[in-house]
Amino acid sequence: MLQPVRGTKDLIGTEATLYRKVVDTAYAVALRYNFQEIQTPLFEFSQVFQRTLGETSDVVSKEMYTFEDRGGESLTLRPEGTAPVVRAIISNGLTQSLPLKLFYSGAMFRYERPQKGRQRQFHQIGAELIGPKTPLADAEMIALGYQVLKTLNLHTDVILNLNTLGDVESRTAYRAALVNYLQQYKDALSKDSQDRLERNPLRILDSKDENDQKIIENAPLFQDYLNDESKAYFNQVQAYLNALNIPYIHNQKLVRGLDYYCHTAFEFVTTSLGAQGTVLAGGRYDGLMKQMGGPDASGIGWGAGIERLCLMLQEQDTVIKTANLITIVPTSEAEESTAFQVAQTLRAAGLHIDIGYSGNMSKRLKKASQNNSIAAIIIGADEIASKAAQVKFLNENRQENISLSQLADFLNTNLS
């Protein structure tokens, strides 16, 4: 029997409904912040990610699904959403239209060990604000993410971790201090961290190796190497969040795992999902567009795992309110054509209509109840002759005869 590929999952029933709730809720909130939707291809030229995520990142070195197509081009299934969005802005000549506020949703791909909240094909919602280089933009993006979580009623289950990575001058000073510290423990570091020590030591702060983490505990902190400009920038971001009463903690160990981040970094973290606790995360990436061949434009964005948000909704036993369903029940095959026409008319009027396809009237009514229909519309020979229908309320002991011309208004008034 054919099975899904390891690390992939079919979304059916409640899981699919929760997925749609997350996407639709996030999109509705993003529209209120004047974000426009963007959808990029599922695969890109590999350089889109190799040049931007960093050759030493786990994503590039271990997790990307990269293949050569029949034309000899190296292509990669997208592992994250930011680089494709920035590529799209450059490719479509939108760099003259900055600032841009863009929202996306869709599948991402990473070769990881599948576990709760982590799949090899996973899905994200995300938002990017391209153009402004101001603490206000950082605060607005964090506020957008917080509002999405709040609208989903998940904001009390997460805590915002906030940090600054400083500007280039601050990062350079910190990098030197970090390398000086880590050199003392070079032989004790994991193989991956030893490799990164020369090429990108900040990546070591992201290490999941237990011994690496013990060494990192006493490493220098970014805060001690920030210049005045970086401190002022971060202070202003915090002031804006304080003004909005968005709770956060300053986590000085927080870094983002990709090369293009600077200044503000943030993560909304929960304790309800075990090891996969980060549900929405992002930061500022001022050098990314120039790195990809575009102008030197600033940017800040975030991504959130839809599967993880759905798991949190499931743990809350979130009830998804569905529209009231009504089932058309023809009493025999002879009335099916009329029943079909009535169903189409009612659907066009905004009602949610199913059709009882087979069996006698008793079986069709039973099936309507099993489908959680609140009413059945019975159409037989007598109803067709009188241009009417019997509306049977399945949760009540009543039934009404309604003319077909008034049926849509009656149902919208009484059942919608």
What do you see in this structure?
This protein has an eight-stranded mixed sheet, with helices on both faces. With 416 residues, it is of the alpha+beta class. The chain folds into two domains: 14-167 and 227-315, Bira Bifunctional Protein, Domain 2 (BirA Bifunctional Protein, domain 2, 2-Layer Sandwich), CATH 3.30.930; 325-414, Rossmann fold (3-Layer(aba) Sandwich). 37% of the residues are buried. The model has no long low-confidence stretch (mean pLDDT 90). It has helices at 14-32, 47-53, 58-63, 82-91, 135-151, 168-182, 191-199, 210-216, 228-243, 288-291, 306-315, 336-348, 361-370, 381-386, 407-414; strands at 36-37, 43-45, 66-68, 74-77, 100-109, 121-131, 159-164, 248-250, 262-269, 278-284, 298-305, 325-330, 352-355, 373-379, 388-393, 398-403. It is 38% helix and 23% strand. The protein starts with 13 loop residues before the first helix and ends with a helix. The chain has 15 helices and 16 strands. A hairpin with a 5-residue loop joins strand 3 and strand 4. One of its GO terms (cellular component) is cytoplasm. It is found in: Cytoplasm. It is an enzyme of class 6 (ligase). One of its GO terms (molecular function) is histidine-tRNA ligase activity. Residues 32-330 form the Aminoacyl-transfer RNA synthetases class-II family profile domain.
